[in-house]
Input
Amino acid sequence: MSLANEATARVTRRLPGLWTILFVALGLTILVSLGIGRFGVPVDHVAGILAAQILPIEPFWKPVEERVVELIRMPRIIIAGLAGAGLAVAGSALQGVFRNPLVGPQIIGVSSGAAFGGAFAILVSESQILLIGAAFGFGMLAMVVVYTISRQQGRASILMLVLAGIVTSAFFSALVSVTKFVADPDDKLPAIVFWLMGSFASASYEKVWLIGIPVVIGSILVYLMRFQINVLSLGDEEAQSLGLKVERTRWIVLIAVALISAAVVAAAGIVGWVGLVIPHFARMLTGPDHKVLIPAAALIGAIYLIHVDNVARASIAAEIPVGIITALLGAPVFAYLLRRAANKGWSSE
Amino acid sequence: MKSVFMAAVGAFAAFAASAEPITIVDQRDRTVTLDGEAERVVTIPIPAASMFIAVDGGTDRLVGMHQLSKTAIKGRILQRFYPDALAIPSNITGKGFSFVPNVEELLALEPDLVFQWGHLNDDIIDPLVNAGLNVALIKIGTEEFTRKWLTIMGAVTGKSEKAQAMIDWRDAVMAEVRAATADIADDERPRTLYFMNYLSKLRVAGGRSYNNFYIDLAGGKNVAAELGMFAEVGVEQIIAWDPEVILLNGFEAKLSPQDVYDNELLADVSAVKNRRVYKMPLGGYRWDPPNQESPLTWLWLSMILHPDKFDWGMSERIDRNYQFIYGQGVTAEDIQNILRFDMNADAANYDIFNDG
Output
């Protein structure tokens, strides 16, 4: 314990610098991203358009440039940032409560559950609220199933958890295929396929609210639970002996994670690897204390996914699906982090 | 050379009595031999059904088609020309844009020839071949490919003369349009964009698509020519291209120019400002992919792109060529339906088609 305390103290001394760097990086990321795109908008015009939001500036830019920056790029950047932050927070929380570096929203089944919920909602109605509600409900259900399967004699082993996740994901993927099979090929099927593929291309301010509210609520909930997650990450018995209601804590965190994941899936489809890789990266910077880990992961996740989306939308004329890039970057980086941090921050069971 | 050979084969087939074996070479260079004229034909590629009906001049010998072939017939003009077409089974493939054959359903139809796509993967072909069926493989992409469909269909039905006449018509109209548009300078060619999908995602036709061929032929330039066949793009890319004319596909039945006009993100695009967004017509088949009526697509599009330069008398052309293709003429109301006046009437210059 003394070693861990010492590490935490060292990190705490570095913190003001860390926060400054992360916030400046996020601000710069947003500014730079507003200037990137297939439609050329000079940097001074972007700055002017932004400044005009609060200052009375005579427009020296074209109306079309204002539209591109305000109506196309801005909501897309906000959604990418929210999704990145949300997935990173969800991943950090899951890895904490399960004491398991291999857990992410995708592995634990919540993403495929949410995907089925959303596909089913598209099949039976056109309501966006129902879509996010069903995505949340089935995401939650999938997680409950994984959790139930993996528990043996009151505890969940890492192996069982991962295996249960694979089983549950496979089952819900099959249900998604059933949905696609019965969908009307002229009408519902293209909508479902498009939604499942996941892209920020259809971003709008409406969607900012749709994803923003659940992600913010879920993230705040996780942050409020930061001390309990810390205690849980010591192990169930230790947590119980310290007076923590283990089951209740775990459930609250799981509900928050399902809420975040469902919102991200609803807005952008399944974006893999972010919730797995970013928490690891953040943990290397901050150490295992969730009080600093969670906000740091959120900021890094936002920065990361905004940049990934910049590549997706601006590198070539055609849109590149975001999930392809996150997987191409995420898998090797994760393998590297896993090797490096094999015995740091995580006790092997 | 090959098409000359094919035509020769076709001419021979037409000449021979129907009991004589017919040999064709399909678009994967496979040789297919039939005992005589094909009497029970199944078409799996979507545009092939109406083309086969057109070549054969009826539906008697078509015993199965793709589900999406039938949706282009139902409620449209082909249903009136050939009411029996709706009774032809269309449960021979998976749902939607699936070309995976349901072999047992197919065998139950006892076809002596099955048309199937040759450019996708062999998994949709092998089950048919292994079941002992005669399979003719066809490919999509260029105008040249489409002509071979006609040649093959003519050969197997003993209607090579009709098929050749349909090819000659394509040649004649292509030469006519090309002569008219060849001299149009690059900066006078309207920047044109074709949406293969719009409602669920923005997917456009690139430089290797058939759409690119006829946009170019009709005197436009495809703004998405740098892309391959079909590709998904972002809204911003469309604003950057700033197309002057936008063409909407016929597959998304509910898609209308109004959907594009109502999209505030596209408000600055020239085609939207000048109301030059058009739904592709739907006659005996959807006019956007290659089909038996493609020359009418070329003429229509050249008038859309250059309303001040060209007037081919579309009503008369449609009527005359429908007589030729289907043996039946059309009314002024039919023409309005085919040219999608229900969606296009308010678009810029569309009254040039009101020449009935």
